[in-house]
Amino acid sequence: MRASKKITSSCNEQLDELRRGPWTLDEDNLLIHYITCHGEGRWNSLAKASGLKRTGKSCRLRWLNYLKPDVKHGNLTPQEQILILELHSKWGNRWSKIAQNLPGRTDNEIKNYWRTKVQKQARHLKVDSNSKMFIEALRQFLVPRLLEKVELSTSSSSTSTSSMEVNQNNFISQPQCKETLMEKTSSNSDIYSSNFKRIVLPYMPESSLQSNGYIVDNNNFDVMSFNQSNTQELMSSDLPAFEFQMAGIDWTSNEFVDDTFWNMDELWQFKK
DNA sequence: AAAGCAATCAACCGCGGGGTT
DNA sequence: CAACCCCGCGGTTGATTGCTT
Which cellular component terms (GO) are annotated to the entry (predicted)? Predict the structure, then answer.
C-alpha cells in the first residue's frame, strides 16, 4: 500500500485514532453542524477542526454522497435511467460528469446503478456492456420500455413546468424546438421516422448541463449520442451478425412495464 | 427458523491533476 | 523544476439486507 511506505510513527498513531466504516448519527450531526457553520471544502482541515476522527476524504465523501441537503435518495426514475444510459454511451465511465447532469444524484450512486443493473444484464447476455451490440440492444428494447413507463407515469399527471422530450432513437431532444422537431420529422431522416415518439417528461434539472456543447439552459436538454450518424454506424455491416429475438413476448403488455425492467435475459434470445 | 447465497450500496483505496512552496 | 499537499475521480471492497431453499 502506497500510504504505508510514507507512514512515520507519529502518523501511525494518528491513523490508529482514525475511525473507519459506517458513520454514526453523532458523526453525521457533527459534520452537518460544522459545515453549516463554516461551509464545505478544505476537507483535511475541516476533518481536524470539526473534531471528527475521520480523514478529510471520508468527510467529503459522506457529505457529498449522503448528507448534503440536495442529495436525492431513493430509486432512479425512468427518466434518470434513460439519461444515464444516454450519457454513458457518450462519455463512458465518466461518472462525475454524468452525475452533473442528474441533479441530486451522485457519481457513486450512478456508478453503482451501472454496475449492479446494466452491467449485470450485459453479463447475462454474455456481451461487453460497452459493445455496440449491447448498446444497440439498449436502444432498441430497453429505452422504449423506459419511455413507456415514463409515458404511463406522466399521462396521469401533466403539471410539468419544464420538460425533456424524448424519442427512442435520439433519446432526448430540445423541448423548446417543437418546430425543429417537426421540420426534422418531415424532412425524412430515418431517425425521425414514423416510429418517432415524442414524450414530454416532467423533469426539473436544478443546474445547467455543462460541457461539450451539450449545454442548454435549465429547461432544455440536447443530448444526442445516438444521433443519426452513429445510429447508422450501429446498424451498418461491421456489426457482428446478430439478431435479438423476442421470446414470444408481447411488448405492449403491461406486465413488463409493471415488472422490474432489467430482465432482458428472459425476454431475449441470441440468434447467431 | 436458519443457513446459504445474491444483490445492493456506503465507504475505502490508489492514482493523477492542479496548485503551492 | 522538484517536492509536497489537497482534492476529486473511478475502481473495488465489504457490511448489510433481502431472497431462496
Answer: nucleus
